[in-house]
């Protein structure tokens, strides 16, 4: 029993669909600075190369000044930039900034940057706090 043309087409369609699904973030993508460290992806959203999604969102553009915008085929995802809500500063006294991609399943009900800070920041706050404190302690040991 061979593979029918219908099954082959469906198989090809399934592969295309799977590739599309696998290229979408399943979680938050978070890029931020530490106390001394430069910008790094702190969360990758389940992607091997989160920078591709950041580029698609417009977050790699250094001239992008918006704080909140929707993007994607149906504007289903959110890109956001904001200053650390707790007032954290880097080693030079500059405010820390956070850049995020919020995937479709978390983007519902988020309509502005205040919603991002209120609803998404608590989901990443603990991880960033640990990274920041570890980086700051490393810097203090280096200065000692």
What does this structure look like?
This protein has 144 residues and is α+β, with helices and mostly antiparallel strands. It has one domain (26-143). Helix content is 42%, strand content 18%. The protein has helices at residues 5-22, 50-57, 104-107, 113-143, and strands spanning 29-32, 40-44, 68-71, 77-83, 97-102. It has a 5-stranded antiparallel beta sheet, sandwiched between helices. The termini are far apart.
Helix and strand layout, with pairings?
Layout: H1 5-22, E1 29-32, E2 40-44, H2 50-57, E3 68-71, E4 77-83, E5 97-102, H3 104-107, H4 113-143
Sheet with most strands: strand arrangement: 2-1-5-4-3
State the major sheet.
5 strands, antiparallel
> Which residue ranges are poorly predicted, with pLDDT under 50 across at least 5 consecutive positions?
none
Number of helical elements: 4
Structural class: alpha+beta
Terminus-to-terminus distance = 74 Å
One letter per element, helices H and strands E, the order comes to HEEHEEEHH
Report the sheet-strand fraction.
Answer: 15-25%
The counted number of beta strands is 5
